[in-house]
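Lecture 7 notes: from sequence to structure.

We start with a single chain of 481 residues. Read the sequence below before looking at the structure.
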Amino acid sequence: MDSQSLGTDTRPVRIAIVGAGPAGFYTTEALLKQPNLVCSIDLFNHFPTPFGLVREGVAPDHQSIKGVTRIYTRIAADPRVRYFGNVTFGTDIKHEQLKHYYDQIVYAVGAQADRRMGIPGEDVAGSLPATAFVGWYNGHPDYTHLDPDLAHERVIVVGNGNVAMDIARILTQAPDELAKTDIADHALAKLRASRVREVVMLGRRGPAQAAFTTAELKEFGTLQGVDIVVDAAQLELDLHSAALAAEDKLVANNLAVLRSYTAKTEHAATRRIQMRFLVSPSELVEQDGRVAAVRIEHNQLVADDYGGLRAKGTGRFELIETGLVLRAVGYRSIPLQGVPFDEATFTIMNIAGRVVHPMTGEPVAGEYVAGWATRGPTGVIGTNKLDAAATVTAMLEDLPNLTGIDDNQRDPALVEDMLRECKPDYVTWNEWQLLDRVEVERGVTQNRPRVKVTSVSEMLATIAQQRTTSAEHRTTTPANV
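Now the structure, written as tokens:
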């Protein structure tokens, strides 16, 4: 590659981005905005449908957040960008193949798996990770088979972050309200028949250390027919937490909202969310092969060697009966074939977005990472924009010194040839738009944003049908019309 330029019209920099969620699109956007970079970008995605977490993770009653897909759609419309959906890295395409056809590769694969609690009984029936439950109500193809037991009155949600709050809200919200969203049809039907009347959220640390945002917390108070129950005694702060509240506006705002909930002593609603702090599950108690209760230990906050606060068990236990436990204690990335992975942090090994060799710590030439796979599942969707920009900065710094691929490997058509051999049912952006149109049109008839297609086989069949219909329409429409 010409060390004096960052690509040319006749020899653009070839870039592959693995993952078409927020991190993938923000990385694409940052690359396209570089005035001195001439590039062509291929996005590879596991499912036929793009948008990752926005489609499969954001709660269905948060449609305003999902509006960001309009930006992603504009990015994908750029002629320098191609989309290849229904293509799985490591299975359909190998690491070595991408290295063969691209000067630079970015891994923007998010965090697809859940963290574990590491307690006895965690795998008993009736205990599920948040990844599965969230995927179930969002129509994630891997979780359509899930059949959560909603026949019990109480559900325990372990965690005090926004995901835990999403789950609590979905479980207690009126089904008629959810019917106005893009929640998966199978989930809506199950929630209509739900007998759940109480969701208990368990946080291992205190209210000052909770990970939720103030907006999410306030939203609890707007739920019709749902009481929010908070024990005022649990909002009494230790000295360290009080100091944190004095200097951190977010913490102070959260505490103010929580205190407003303690003021409401009349709890006559048919459903309720109880928020508890300084408690940790120590065991899931099994009965007749299913979870029947959660044994929790009460905690206290103690200072660690680094000046932080950690939860320490007091030896005082309590038993809470339940028929369903959902753990929302964090997501984690999973290893990719041929890509260095840190099993301690569950992230791709990197320094400032550059993938590094596991033995030497030296950068792997031409390979990068963006989003949660870089830093872990922290922040909001927009946070991915910031570290995508940082990753692109590293890519631009490296480009003049990269050898790059051979000229006989640069033709973009070679990638399509490869996919026709190894994954002939890959999905293009135009084909995704055919599916998108069907989902939206189905939604219109039900006064909903869209009605999702939730299985890959049905997605592909719908696309094929739309292609046939479009071809027939072109054939039967007079040329002079």
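The radius of gyration is 25 Å. Keep this in mind for problem set 3.
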